[in-house]
Structure formats: C-alpha cells, structure tokens
Design brief:
heterodimer, A: mainly beta, five-stranded antiparallel sheet, B: globular
Chain lengths: ~120, ~120
C-alpha cells in the first residue's frame, strides 16, 4: 500500500462547477499537508498549506484536513478552464522527525483535472 | 510566494556524459533544498535532501555516486548526474525550504534527455 493514495483521473467537469479532489494517507506521522497545481512540463505551484484539522479557505480554494480519518480534500469553487491542470496532494512529517532537519514531501500521484468551457 | 529557479530548463546529452543542474532560491535563504524526479504520468519522487554545508541525505534506491549534490550556499544547490544513461531521462525538480514551519517552493524543473 502506498503512503498516499490519490485518484489519477482524469476528472472532467463543466465550467462553473465545484470540484472536489481527495487524498488518503496511511502514515499518522504526517502533520503538514499541501496542495500543488502542476501544468504540463512545469514545476508544481503551491496552492494551499495546512497543518491542522479543519478547513482553510483562500479565494476559490478550500483545503480540508481530517487527521482522524487520514483524509484531505481540496475544493475549487466556480471552476474555470484555466484551472485545468494536475493537482498533487503532498504531506510531510514534522521538522526533525527523522532525526535530521526538514524532511522531503510525499506526494500523491496527482489528479488530472479538465474544466470544460 | 517564494521564487526558485532552475537552470537549464532542458538538456539533451549523449550517454556517458555528466550533466549539472542548478537550483537557486532567489528571494529567501533556503536552509534545506530537495531534489525530486518525475517520470511521465508519475508523481514526484524524492531523491535527496540537501542542507547547506553538509552532505546530502539520499533516499533508498538513489545512488549517491551517480547523483552528486552540492549545497554550497543558502541560495544554491547543484545536482550532477554523472555518466548519464537513457534511463536517467526524466524531469528533475528542486525545491527549497526556508525554515522549520516553511513549506517547500518548487523550481520550474529541468527536463533531461539522454540519447
């Protein structure tokens, strides 16, 4: 079983719809959660960064974390064609957890999202 | 957000040659830099963690003698792929982190093609 599971899609929705993207994880040591957007042949762009259970909102994006269920979500309201991209969830353990300093991120496989005009 | 650059953005080389990729944090000091690799339709896989002034920590299965990492300053880390082979062709992405609570900001990536 992979540490982070994410449905690769593709997920196709009409413009204006609410999009729901999800990841599950198995390692309870993960405490920091991120969502990145990646366009084809580009580096990932940070969208949301959370470290507590609950909701965090930023514009049209809402990140939701449920640590008890080991489940995180990203909601996109009023979706636009320009939102079409691959969305990657990522998470990491606390700083120093592995005995050193910062730890790298563990990524989901990414969900390919298509917003139809 | 913070800006991280990579150079070159794309490189094509012959099998057996070495390739150096630079990663720079442009507007913050990165205490830690990370190197990831991404194969087509796959997610990013961490290769190594690099702290300024110390040896890099490599993930299991990543050959440290093949992928040389140097973190010479708080704004620059380099990855050298030595004696590159076609199976090393991939998208190499670096990220930089500025501190304990900081998340990672990614560079634009370097696409390596080994012929």
């Amino acid at each position: 079983q992979k540490e982070v599971e994410q449905d690769p899609g593709p997920l196709s929705v009409p413009e204006g719809a609410i999009v729901s993207l999800n990841c599950t994880y198995s390692n309870s040591a993960f405490q920091y959660f991120m969502w990145y957007r990646q366009y084809s042949r580009k580096g990932p762009e940070l969208l949301m960064y959370t470290y507590s259970s609950g909701n965090k909102e930023d514009g049209r994006f809402t990140a939701q974390v449920d640590k008890s269920s080991k489940y995180i979500s990203l909601f996109i309201r009023d979706s636009q064609p320009s939102d079409s991209a691959t969305y990657l969830c990522a998470m990491r353990v606390p700083w120093g957890y592995s005995g050193g300093g910062a730890d790298g991120l563990t990524f989901g496989k990414g969900t390919h999202l298509i917003i139809q005009p | 957000g913070a800006v991280v650059s990579q150079h070159p953005s794309r490189v094509i080389c012959k099998s057996g040659t070495s390739v150096k990729i630079e990663c720079r944090s442009l507007d913050f000091q990165a205490t830690t830099m990370f190197w990831y690799r991404q194969f087509p339709k796959q997610s990013l896989m961490l290769m190594a963690t690099s702290n300024e002034g110390s040896k890099a920590t490599y993930e299991q299965g990543v050959e440290k003698d093949k992928f040389l990492i140097n973190h010479a300053s708080l704004t620059l880390s380099t990855l050298t792929v030595t004696s590159a082979h076609p199976e090393d062709s991939s998208f190499y992405i670096c990220s930089a982190s500025g501190g304990v609570q900081e998340t990672q900001y990614f560079g634009p990536g370097t696409r390596l093609l080994v012929l």
